[in-house]
Write a structure and sequence with these properties.
By secondary structure, this protein is α+β, with helices and mostly antiparallel strands. About 45% of the residues lie in helices and about 20% in strands. The chain has eight helices and eight strands. Strands 3, 4, 5, 6, 7 and 8 form a six-stranded mixed beta sheet that branches. A hairpin with a 5-residue loop joins strand 5 and strand 6. The longest helix is centred in the last third of the chain and has 35 residues. It is elongated.
Length: about 280
């Protein structure tokens, strides 16, 4: 009964309902696009994004992994140092040049140790305050130290899968070029040099495919339902105001000799005498 009454009210107010539909469509568009008036344009809010990952091996020219007599502990230390360097502005600039993206659009975090508990990996208040600037970054990089191995795990995030793959693959290339250039400038002997090797190519894909459609549909339904919830009681209130403001209806006056409900005695009407009777 209540559902039928609500639908009837919405049908009576169908023009206002159409306005609510238009507002809901506008809100859905604004949830997935940024509107610019000068010049007029629609820019995606990047609710959908892709990620890619790649691993970097810190090795020796003769590959310490192939020699049982080699000690890889110094390489583990180098890997930790390199992971810290990759999060620095100098490394971010080199990665941005290789990936062909603006350096100020990249946010780099790390390094993180997989053996550490989650509350240790989470940034402190001071670190978090410095990261707020990068909340709107389009591209993100995260560096993780692999325990007891000279390996750095790189995780990249970008609006599209090709951009995420290109960003992840740019990290080992930028690191290798920087280290090689540093060793060349210092004339480091070949047997004492560090080799930065990429373990395969980056792999990745879309994380939340269809997020834009889901967000837009959810916003549309929420706004439309909220509009209808306001429209129905507003109609009831307006109808009550009209009834209070209108003059009361006049009742018909009762007939003479009768009661108001028409059940009283009726007035007798005299009849003419018999015309055949002589008085």
């Amino acid at each position: 009964m209540e559902l039928a009454r609500t639908l009837k009210t919405l049908w009576w107010r169908r023009r206002l309902l159409a306005v609510g539909v238009a507002i809901a469509i506008l809100a859905a568009l604004l949830s997935v696009y940024r509107v610019s008036l000068a010049p007029p344009s629609l820019e995606s809010r990047a609710n959908e994004f892709s990620t890619a990952s790649v691993q970097i091996l810190v090795d020796t020219p003769g590959s310490a992994f192939a020699d049982l007599a080699s000690n890889i502990e110094p390489l583990e230390t180098r890997a930790s140092v390199f992971a810290r360097f990759l999060a620095s502005p100098v490394a971010v600039d080199l990665i941005a040049q290789r990936a062909k993206v603006p350096a100020n659009a990249i946010e780099a975090q790390g390094p993180f140790d997989l053996n550490q508990p989650l509350f240790v990996q989470e940034p402190t208040a001071e670190q978090r305050s410095s990261q707020i600037i990068g909340e709107g970054a389009v591209y993100r990089l995260r560096f993780v130290n692999t325990p007891e191995l000279p390996i750095i795990a790189v995780y990249a995030q970008a609006p599209t899968t090709p951009e995420a793959l290109r960003l992840a693959n740019a990290v080992p290339v930028a690191l290798r070029r920087y280290i090689d250039g540093l060793q060349d400038s210092q004339d480091t002997p070949q047997q004492r040099r560090v080799q930065v090797r990429r373990l395969g190519t980056a792999s990745g894909g879309v994380v939340n495919k269809g997020a834009d459609i889901q967000i837009a549909l959810l916003v549309f339904l929420v706004v439309l339902v909220g509009w209808c919830m306001l429209l129905v009681p507003a109609h009831t209130i307006a109808q009550g105001w009209r009834e209070v403001g209108s003059p009361p209806a006049r009742r018909p006056s009762p007939r003479r000799g009768g009661s108001q409900n028409g059940n009283g005695p009726r007035e007798e009407v005299p009849t003419d005498p018999d015309p055949g009777k002589v008085g």
